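Quarterly update, task 2.4: zinc ion-bound model.
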Amino acid sequence: MAEDFNCPNCGGSLSRKMRHSKMVACPYCESTVLLEDDVVKLAGKGGVMSEEPSLFELGRAVEYQGNSFMPIGQARFSYANGWWDEFWALDGKGDGVWISVDEGDIAIQRRDPDAEMINEANLKLGARVSFDGELFRVTEVDSATCEALRGEFPEELSLGDTYRYYNLSGPRGRVVSLEYDEDGMSASEGEWIDPYEVRQQAIEAGS
Ligand SMILES: [Zn+2]
C-alpha cells in the first residue's frame, strides 16, 4: 500500500510502502523525512551509501526457507571491524523484520518491545545471560555509528548516532541483539540464517 507525499526540502515525490514507516530518506536531496500523524517534517540527512555487492538490495525480494522478504530500507552502521547493513524488510504477512548483513553473517530479527530490561553491566563478552527463558552467551560487544540511510524505516534514525550493542547467541541459532543509548534498551530477537539458502527473486516490473 503505497502512500505518496512530497519531500519538504526539495519537493520531490516520495512514497512509503508500509503504513507504519515513520521515516523516509529522500533519494533526490538526501534528506530524511519524518512522518507522524500525517505531519511531514524534515529530520536530517541520509548520507551517501556506497554500492557494495550484497545478497540483499532495496526493492528486490529474497526467499528464505519458503518465506519471502522485501527490503524497503537500508541503514549502514560502522563498528570496530568495518561496517554492516541493516535492512528493514516486509515479510509475506506485511510485518516488518530487520535483516542484518555483515558479509556472510546474516540474521533475521524482530523487535521485542516487551523484553525485560537487562543490566548492561552483566553483558561481558562470554557471559551467560538468561533471555526469554533460555540461556544465551554474549558473543559480541561493540558500539555502532549510523553512516548512511536510504529507503524507509519504522523508527527515526540519524546519521552519526552511536549506540552500544551486544549480540547474544542461544540454542538453535537464536540471536538476541540488545542496543543501549540515552533512551534505554531495545531488544531484537531472531536467528542466524544460512546465506546459501537465501534466494534472490526476479525484480518485478515497474517497481
Ligand atoms: Zn528531497
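Highlight for this quarter: The chain has no helices and 16 strands.
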